[in-house]
Amino acid sequence: MAYGQQKGTVEGVVTDASLNNETMPAVSVSVQGTKQGANTDINGKFKLELNPGAHILVFSYVGYQTLRDTISVKAGNTINLNVAMASDAQMLNDVVITGEVRKDTESSLLRQQMKSAVITQSIGAQEMGRKGISNAAVAITKVTGIAKQEGTSGVFVRGLGDRYNNTLLNGLPLPSNEPTSKNISLDLFGTDVIQSIGISKIYTADGYGDVGGATVNIVSKEHVGSPDLSIEIGGGLNTNAFRSDFKKADNWNRFGFYNIKTPTTLQQYTFGSRWSPKTVNNPFNYNFAISGGKSFNVGEEGRINLFATASHTTDYTYRSGSEKIVGNRQDIVNTDFFNIQKFGYKTNTTGMLNLAYRIDSKNLIKLNSIFINGSSSTVGEYNLVKQNEPVQFKRQTLTEQNKLFLNQLLGEHQLNERLNLDWAGSYGIVNADMPDRITNTLSEDNASGYIFSTGDVNANNRYFQYITEKEWAARAALNYKLFKNADNTYNGKISVGYNGRQKKRDFEATQFSLRMNGGNTGIKGDPNDIDAFLNAGNLSSSADPNTFTLRTARSSNLTPFTYNVDLQNHGGYVNYEHTPNDRITYTLGVRVDKVLQKMTWDTNIRLPSLDFDDAKIDKLFILPEATLKYALKEDENLRVAASKSYTLPQFLEKAPFRYDDITYATIGNPYLKPADNYNLDIKWEKFPSSDELFSFGIFGKYIKDPISLSRTAAAEPSLFSFYNAGDYAYVIGAEFEARKKITDYLSGGVNLTYMYSRQELDMNKVEVETGGNHSVNFNTNHDALQGASPLLVNADLTYKATKGNLRPTFSLIGNYFYDRIFSLGAYGKGNIIERGYPTINFVSSVNIGARWDLGLKVNNILNNRIRMEQENDDAHVEVYSYKSGLDFSVGLKYNFFK
């Protein structure tokens, strides 16, 4: 028997062949048939001491291919073994590769987060499926510090709303589909087209500088591995909407495609649909989808991966409740909207084609085309009381259609061992149409029931709005590796790049108002049959009794109101990254952005003292940034990031156009100027295993010339506009996140954000900077930021097991936000506060064998009341109150090739 046998050493580096051979930390390196093994460190390095003889090393990482290598160890010798975990099924020396690479798993995204030189977070298709997430808008609200505000399509990141955020697809910007928004509605992107979503709450020099909250980058789904084809069908209902008298617009289309024309004459009745809505019984939601992919070899080295998907979803909603417009005391109720009913129907039709051509190991070209048609049809019915006026009935029927067509071409090229080139270009167009918004107002009359309101010429109208937004974008970057090591890895790189975009928006709107010619007695009207009077037979070109006359806001002129915006943004950057030792990685970067935004308009707002050039933004921004990552241990990092960025006003915020809704109106402010943002983040993170995470961070943002929504000085109590309301605002806060595998079957996660925000409010600044054309009277000289909830909490608990051919997964997902400002108060009228509430969703799925998937979801289990209150000095008055109902859905999916 021999004692103290001398061992041999096996050491090396594991890299990711699909990510330009970047090192892979936390990879399991084990000796087959034994309990010996180790994990690679933060730089992908591993080291084993083994007895002499033949051994099989197994390299594994969840979501990646398993690799095996046979080695022969000699006493006292060292074997250097560098292994690349490749994405294609091929032989690497003596390594046998099995399985498929997936970049959408929770573990692979955590690995990327751990090794990244900058602070970032991601949510992938695997996690979205486990949590029953249907689209990108819901997905990012599960990320620390992000929340959605009632009545908006955008999100708030650390208290900063839509204007402070950026949305990208594969690193390229997207045009907006809504006139009120800078960013495209994230709910247009269903999970069928998403591989992962990256969220960066810090600014880095390689991105666009117009960001203060977060950059959201949607990575479109790609095909890898074996052929795949699946079909999915589903159905469900909303407990509120499932009723016998559900109302839809007369011109509604089941699939969400409309072809409604704006009238071209005031002398003839050419409206294409009825004024009164239709009624349907017990509507239910449905969805279907088909997706598939296949890979093709091209020549000796080439490979094409093809993925395509098409889907259609519908969603019925119903809300009943109340709203009020309140003065500066609880007893001053300007308008009381009671017994409100809101019927909603939405569709989403999506098609995507993704083609990736791997020319050889050094060159990759991708083509991505996507079409999305999102539509909504809503019917809102309002009973209302105004001071000193009879009870009124109002109905607004609203049809919207948003069509996005986007093409992207992207390339990655390894020019030599040190130098690579990444480039991309895109063209996108959005047609966001509101083709025929119908508004009717009738007043109660004791003698005849209802009569058409005649006091306001706009009380009965039809409104047509069209937006075309086009966007061209391009980016290119040269990355040169520095500081080569003996094992052929590198400890640094320098990047030089360019990002550019040009966005054009053309907006036009025409409102056809009906002047009622009813004399002293008025004209009788039936809320359930508006068309009995409003029809071609009662249209008159003169003031004949018991008729109506068509007029636009320009009287008899049909020329629409318009505004046109041209935004050009060109930026160049240099970024330096260095890892001087095993623990420290830092980056230093600077970006120079040239912004030119020009605007012209011909609208319903007259500003004779304002020239188009006065509304122009022509500015050069110099934006430095720096990050530091310090590896406390192999699985533990401390990070610091600091940067400067800016925020441009949204197009509609600057355009001098008045938009009227039932309960409020907004008007743009062409005097708005950009805000400057100064950002600081400090974060600690620990990765106990490949699918576990603990992190804690603190952050701060200082904003110069912040933009806020506030009531105006006009006599109307519900007219709002946008202002650089003060010289500064700031947000400070802390974030915590934990993901833990509790048992082999049970896992959970929680993240929470606590923050404090404050902004200066200066009415003199507003009046001076707008040349006296705007004025406000804030209640105080400081307040919290609009949309900034002091506390956000997300939590989930998942049970996952295998029972023979059944693999069930059950998840509970919860969310809570604390009270936050919906809009700032003025003239003694208090802030409107959205009251916080918790939500709980249940998601379950069962994999049956290899081909069948069965799912069940129940959303909004608690069905809490959504409430807003106006905080006046003498009392808090409820001004908004609804319940949304529960959503039940089931789905069945069949996979043909598994």
TrEMBL record:
Keywords: Cell outer membrane, Membrane, Receptor, TonB box. Gene3D superfamilies: Carboxypeptidase-like, regulatory domain, TonB-dependent receptor, beta-barrel domain, TonB-dependent receptor, plug domain. Residues 113-203 form the TonB-dependent receptor plug domain. It is found in: Cell outer membrane. GO terms for cellular component: cell outer membrane. It comes from the Bacteria. Pfam families: CarbopepD_reg_2, Plug, TonB_dep_Rec_b-barrel. InterPro entries: Beta-barrel_TonB, Beta-barrel_TonB_sf, CarboxyPept-like_regulatory, Plug_dom, Plug_dom_sf. Residues 422-861 form the TonB-dependent receptor-like beta-barrel domain. Belongs to the TonB-dependent receptor family. This is TonB-dependent receptor. It comes from Olivibacter domesticus (Pseudosphingobacterium domesticum). The lineage of its organism: Bacteria, Pseudomonadati, Bacteroidota, Sphingobacteriia, Sphingobacteriales.
